[in-house]
């Protein structure tokens, strides 16, 4: 799945398959300008920052069990968040500090470092990396991803895929070759 925020005409947090199909709103009320977004892959939670409402919130992948982790002026400057164990890690765009925040109740906010012009933060840890298994976009005998001449996008499961073309190309009738 792909998770993303949108604050166009109707602000929301959404999810869809990697090929863009099955687009679903998971949060669309009491939300104004959702920006930074992070996933708890283990427990299947989505965290986001709403810079207009000054809220840091969380919801499960189906849009249930929503609650506010933290609210207030200091949330307004959070521009990048990541989840690891019991904490959220965030970039404060006001002073470029990296913060550690208790992800359950927003307490225990600790500045860890200052990084000039930092905008995003990512945590890489072996436990959060899922084991690779065969999937529909694996390279075929000729090296084409999923048999697609340009792009292969996973669908609703790891066994389903959709071929897409780069700009100025059109997908052929075989559903795999771009012309």
From TrEMBL:
GO BP terms, alphabetized: canonical Wnt signaling pathway
LDL-receptor class B repeat ranges per the UniProt record: 1-43
Top-level taxon of the source organism: Eukaryota
UniProt lineage: Eukaryota, Metazoa, Chordata, Craniata, Vertebrata
InterPro entries reported in the protein's UniProt record: 6-blade_b-propeller_TolB-like (IPR011042), Cueball_EGF_LRP_Nidogen (IPR050778), LDLR_classB_rpt (IPR000033)
Source organism of the structure: Nothoprocta pentlandii
Alphabetical list of PANTHER family matching this protein: EGF-LIKE DOMAIN-CONTAINING PROTEIN, VITELLOGENIN RECEPTOR-LIKE PROTEIN-RELATED-RELATED
Gene3D superfamilies xref list: TolB, C-terminal domain (2.120.10.30)
Molecular function as annotated in GO: Wnt receptor activity; Wnt-protein binding
Gene Ontology CC annotations of this record: plasma membrane
Protein name: LRP1B protein
């Amino acid at each position: 799945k792909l998770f993303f925020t949108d604050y166009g005409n109707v602000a929301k947090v959404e999810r869809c398959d990697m090929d863009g199909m099955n687009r679903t709103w998971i949060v669309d009320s009491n939300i104004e300008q959702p920006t930074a977004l992070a996933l708890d892959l283990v427990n299947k939670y989505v965290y986001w920052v709403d810079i207009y409402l000054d809220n840091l919130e969380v919801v499960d992948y189906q849009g249930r069990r929503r609650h506010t982790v933290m609210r207030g002026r200091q949330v307004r400057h959070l521009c990048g968040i990541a989840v690891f164990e019991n904490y959220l890690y965030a970039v404060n765009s006001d002073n470029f500090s990296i913060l550690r925040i208790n992800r359950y109740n927003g307490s225990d906010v600790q500045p860890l470092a200052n990084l000039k012009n930092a905008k995003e933060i990512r945590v890489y840890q072996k436990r959060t990396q899922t084991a690779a298994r065969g999937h529909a976009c694996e390279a075929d005998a000729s090296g084409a991803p999923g048999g697609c001449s340009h792009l292969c996008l996973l669908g609703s499961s790891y066994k389903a895929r959709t071929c897409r073309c780069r700009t100025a190309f059109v997908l052929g009738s075989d559903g795999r070759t771009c012309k």
